[in-house]
TrEMBL record:
The gene is rnpA. Belongs to the RnpA family. This is Ribonuclease P protein component. It is an enzyme of class 3 (hydrolase). The keyword Phosphoprotein does not apply. GO terms for cellular component: ribonuclease P complex. It comes from Prevotella communis. PROSITE patterns: RIBONUCLEASE_P (PS00648). RNaseP catalyzes the removal of the 5'-leader sequence from pre-tRNA to produce the mature 5'-terminus. It can also cleave other RNA substrates such as 4.5S RNA. The protein component plays an auxiliary but essential role in vivo by binding to the 5'-leader sequence and broadening the substrate specificity of the ribozyme. Consists of a catalytic RNA component (M1 or rnpB) and a protein subunit. It holds the Pfam family Ribonuclease_P. Its EC number is 3.1.26.5.
Length: 131
């Protein structure tokens, strides 16, 4: 029996410099699967133990109530946690991927739909990885 997948603090994008690089740099790419958009960037890094780092953003402009924003973030986090192996297995040695999931919808969505969309985005990113 395998250990349960976890979403640890080391897997989160917290560095302001990394966030600016992800959104401001010309190296990032975007994919959309409504109600989510994924902005991702592939980099060469030897110094990092985590091959994938994730940022989840649910703007107040889209979901006005904090409970809805928190639930949406929880849904995306859980979907990513359960399906991250799809992407991690495809990443070559010495490469790393930073991903930002951004909520696009004006209303909450069912968990099954979010899970399906996150899986779709991860599979599409995995196909586009440059070796």
């Amino acid at each position: 029996m395998t250990a349960p997948a976890r979403f640890q603090k080391q897997e989160r994008i917290v560095s302001q410099k990394l966030i600016e690089e992800l959104f401001g740099g010309g190296q990032s790419h975007t994919l959309a699967a409504f109600p989510l958009r994924a902005v991702y960037m592939q980099q060469e890094r030897q110094d990092r133990s985590e091959p994938v780092k994730v940022l989840i953003s649910v703007p107040k402009k889209r979901l006005h109530h904090a409970v809805d924003r928190n639930r949406a973030k929880r849904q995306v986090r859980e979907a990513y946690r359960l399906q991250k192996q799809v992407l991690i297995e495809k990443i070559p040695e010495g490469k790393a991927i930073d991903i930002a999931f951004i909520w696009l919808s004006d209303r909450p969505c069912p968990t099954a739909e979010i899970s399906h969309k996150v899986c779709s985005l991860l599979e599409r990113i995995a196909k586009k990885i440059v070796y």
